[in-house]
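Quarterly update from the structural biology core.
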Amino acid sequence: MKRKVLNRILKNPMSITGDADLDAQLNALLYHDDIEYVKQGLEIADSLGVDVLDKAVGEMIAGGVIKVDDVDIGNRVEQRNWFIFLFELQKQQDKPFKFWKKFKYLDLSFNDIEDYLPYFKNLTNLDSLILDDCYLEEFPQNFKFLKKLKGLSLARNEISEIPEWIDTFKKLEYFDLASNDIYDLPDSITKLKKLKWISLKGNPIATSTKTMNQLRIEMPYLDIWY
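Predicted structure, tokenized:
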């Protein structure tokens, strides 16, 4: 954590439990330089209930400790670690955390995310999702809830079929499907009128298929990589 962020937060400690001693303990842990102490603090907050953890994470997002948007390359590994940890906490709860709606960017590349797929339906404000090299064998059903996506990257997985409901992503502009096992595309993909770029490199798809021809005719501006 950057020292200036830590100092700013410590000058305005959060109060989430109403107990001064417990709040002091949580602040000392949640705004520690060592991420292991931070995780310990989140586990304590989690043990106090969904609402306490929601507020704690919300404060950390507001303070810039946890990044939710415009994550640069240097922060991507850190954000992946946060998400894996938060997903693990979510698995222990019966209802979704409210803080999921604050996230707009997510890169979980190079992780086996199968156990976390049920929780993607809570990330309804995501506009960029990168799941390259995640061992995906099919297009996740819960993605249909991510209607604000503008960028979606699923490169180097084992996906063989794109669902007909792909036109759910009305705002999608960039779609990376490179190096999967896709033989054809659904007709509904031609309804993605905001799509600017799609990569189909490394797929066994035939460039002369009906849908590919439709894309060229109906979306002549579309940059297709294959």
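The helical segments are 3-11, 20-30, 35-47, 50-62, 73-90, 210-218.
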